[in-house]
Inverse folding.
């Protein structure tokens, strides 16, 4: 299984902090946002490589960061060739770019690189092995306002995904979908042809939404929470709350 980290965005909402520096490599205490995530994923036996897809503007920074690391699994940095937010490929196209460039034909763990997580991805991998399908994560979100800004899924009693909507005005459940996914090797042909068949390009949830319509998927209810670093305020909050961990 390959761990693919989507890290090609320009994080414009963080202003000067990320104008010339990638958000995933911002420090939270002595570690980086991405480093905290890889510390967990690197321990998963099924994972044999970390692939980080970034943009041309930040690729050199990721390469320098990589030199000081000592993970068990190798790290590959993929440069998508873009240099501005206006020319970005979008998360789905970045995933397809990395898959094609590296000729990937393996199960995939696909993660966004701007969250602090309070559970292990091993639980997610084990869930996908049990279900033998591609999988998404989900968590209960009581706020209708927040549900209207994210992906929302309907599930049956076995956590099979019955339907998914992106940013619904009238959510059909309280199950919100964070940006973490497992796509099985058997479904990679669907992934590869998703954009040409109408899948949205920008957010990683666009691909999950497309896949739900074309293959069987299950959703793992997160066993603990996460902290999404999406703005300057939430970054400073993360440093204050978790920088001493």
């Amino acid at each position: 299984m390959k761990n693919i980290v989507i890290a090609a965005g320009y994080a414009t909402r963080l202003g000067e902090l990320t104008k010339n520096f990638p958000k995933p490599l911002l420090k939270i205490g002595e570690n980086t946002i991405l480093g905290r995530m890889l510390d967990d994923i690197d321990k998963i036996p099924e994972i044999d490589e970390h692939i980080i897809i970034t943009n041309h503007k930040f690729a050199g920074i990721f390469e320098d960061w990589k030199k000081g690391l000592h993970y068990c699994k190798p790290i590959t940095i993929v440069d998508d060739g873009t240099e501005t937010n206006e020319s970005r490929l979008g998360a789905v196209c970045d995933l397809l770019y990395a898959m094609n460039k590296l000729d990937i034909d393996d199960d995939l763990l696909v993660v966004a690189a701007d969250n602090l997580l309070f559970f292990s991805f091993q639980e997610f991998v084990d869930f996908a092995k049990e279900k033998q399908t591609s999988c998404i994560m989900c968590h209960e979100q009581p706020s209708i306002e927040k549900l209207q800004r994210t992906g929302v899924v309907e599930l049956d009693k076995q956590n099979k995904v019955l339907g998914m909507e992106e940013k619904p005005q009238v959510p059909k459940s309280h199950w919100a979908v964070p940006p973490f996914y497992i796509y099985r090797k058997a479904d990679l042909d669907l992934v590869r042809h998703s954009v040409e068949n109408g899948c949205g390009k920008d957010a990683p949830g666009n691909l999950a939404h497309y896949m739900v319509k074309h293959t069987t998927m299950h959703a793992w209810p997160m066993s603990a929470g996460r902290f999404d670093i999406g703005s300057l305020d939430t970054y400073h909050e993360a440093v204050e709350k978790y920088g001493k961990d």
The longest strand covers residues 134-140. Residues 1 and 36 are 20 Å apart (CA to CA).
